[in-house]
Prior knowledge:
Elements: E1 5-7, H1 13-19, E2 26-31, H2 36-51, E3 57-62, H3 67-72, E4 80-85, E5 88-94, H4 99-109, H5 113-126, H6 130-143, H7 148-160, H8 164-172, H9 181-190, H10 199-208, H11 213-225, H12 229-242, H13 250-262, H14 266-279
Parallel strand pairs: 1-3, 2-3
Antiparallel strand pairs: 2-4, 4-5
Helix pairs in contact: 5-6, 5-7, 6-7, 7-8, 7-9, 8-9, 9-13, 10-11, 11-12, 12-13, 12-14
Amino acid sequence: xxxxxxxxxxxxxxxxxxxxxxxxxxxxxxxxxxxxxxxxxxxxxxxxxxxxxxxxxxxxxxxxxxxxxxxxxxxxxxxxxxxxxxxxxxxxxxxxxxxxxxxxxxxxxxxxxxxxxxxxxxxxxxxxxxxxxxxxxxxxxxxxxxxxxxxxxxxxxxxxxxxxxxxxxxxxxxxxxxxxxxxxxxxxxxxxxxxxxxxxxxxxxxxxxxxxxxxxxxxxxxxxxxxxxxxxxxxxxxxxxxxxxxxxxxxxxxxxxxxxxxxxxxxxxxxxxxxxxxxx
Length: 280
């Protein structure tokens, strides 16, 4: 038996399946001694567990001896194979599939080399080492040039560095519908163009002339860029309230960009309602 395959029961299911799946995928094989197809599938899974060399753990569960687990995870026929990642079941199949189909199942679970480099880059970015994170993403891009996530991760770091033009180039290389982050990153770019402005000066300018909508717009963008989303959205709502036609309805359009940036949640819902009450 491979060191990457073991028998698991109710007592150690938490440790060997749920907890272990936070470090690598865990493939659970529900089987029984009397099951003919189980005898065909089991050696295939054990062989692949050894061949993949620890990229996943094979947990074999005798469903007759562990009926509570079988019921908990909806096992209706065996063999039943269920995959766990980060403590959650993410995929499954039933029956004794051919080895090629089992490989395809495993390959969907196991991070590609590019994904592993991407994870490394995320750790480096979190540690504040942005040049090393960019290098890891460049390596990932060489491995998988079409990887959308790698490009968007690099765009985010470019924005962290203030490199708006390079971030814009990377984002433009990704179709709008390829990843939900595209809209968020485009929205974030919109608020990078206010660098060098001063919140206090713009606040004073707006206080002196409440109808100075150009200054109010700059102030709103600066506040959003600084993470003061509510204050920024309040300014944008005020632009909509005072003049819908200002710069081709820029107040409403910019507010929608903030919604994209925030990606949803109670705050966005509240401001959507306020915007709707102004428009209708």
